[in-house]
Amino acid sequence: MSIEETIARRKSIRAYLDKKVAADDLAKIVKAGQWAPNAGPFNMSVIRNAALLQRIDDLTSQAMLASGNDFLVERASLPGYQPLYRAPVLILLSGPSDAPNTALNVATAAENMLLQATELGLGSCFLLTPAFALNAEKNRAVAQEGAIPEGCLMHCAIIVGYTADENKFRRAERGARGTVRYVD
Ligand SMILES: Cc1cc2nc3c(=O)[nH]c(=O)nc-3n(C[C@H](O)[C@H](O)[C@H](O)COP(=O)(O)O)c2cc1C
Q1: Cα(6)–Cα(72) distance, integer angstroms
Q2: In angstroms, what is the span from residue 170 Cα to ligand 1's centroid?
Q3: How far does the centroid of ligand 1 lie from the alpha carbon of residue 171, in Å?
């Protein structure tokens, strides 16, 4: 697949098959994250433990419902909505809370991983919502179980797996975003 095709094919997938991701595919995805543009430390927690995935899913739902944010409450209230969409792999991206570039370092890593997953024929989605649960002090024990080091915050996550339904919980038509101005 050309890079152009991979970029065009990547889309946020919100329904997954109950099927494991092969270890060598997962290793390629993680490596893609490690080779992203970078300006400082960050951590990746690769979570495949079904009980922990369910726990994070439940806590994320609760955090969305309690957020007071209309959009998050509306999403979490949709029938059958699960914020991790039953994906078999969740990769949490975290970094030191006092480092200036953590949010950028994890974002470049996440996008590299989403593209690598696409190239391997896997579905994926960028997630922010688990951060509402895992950065809460009351859920510190679960964040620790998820291998987020002391002194670090979770900034974003990705999920990866085999696509069950390309359109489930879709938010909007995919399209090119952002404004562009050429200055010659
Ligand atoms: C900062 C950020 C946070 C996001 N958080 C979530 C999320 O928590 N849950 C979700 O389903 N999608 C999330 N997304 C995915 C966006 O909804 C998605 O990328 C956007 O709708 C464009 O669709 P596409 O990825 O299919 O092109 C997030 C994307 C970004 C960049």
Answers
A1: 29
A2: 10
A3: 9
Could you tell me if residue 125 is inside a domain? yes
Q: How far is the CA of 116 from the centre of ligand 1 (A)?
A: 17
Q: In total, how many domains does the chain have?
A: 1
> What is the rounded distance in angstroms from the CA atom of residue 156 to the CA atom of residue 61?
16
Q: Does 152 fall in a domain?
A: yes
> Domain range for residue 78?
3-161
Quick check: is 26 in a domain? yes
Sign of the dihedral defined by the CA atoms of residues 67, 53, 12, 157, in that order: positive
Q: What is the pLDDT of residues 25-70, one digit of tens each?
A: 999 999 999 999 999 999 999 999 999 999 999 999 999 999 999 9
Query: What Å distances lie between residue 38 and 3, 70, 137, 173, CA to CA?
Result: 20, 34, 28, 31
The confidence band for 171, taking pLDDT boundaries of 50, 70 and 90, is: confident
- Whether 59 maps to a domain, the answer reads yes
Of 148, 36, 136, 143, residue with least CA distance to 94: 148
pTM for the model stands at 0.98
CATH number at residue 157: 3.40.109.10
CA–CA distance, 135 with 139 (Å, rounded to integer)? 7
Nearest CA to ligand 1 atom 1: 128
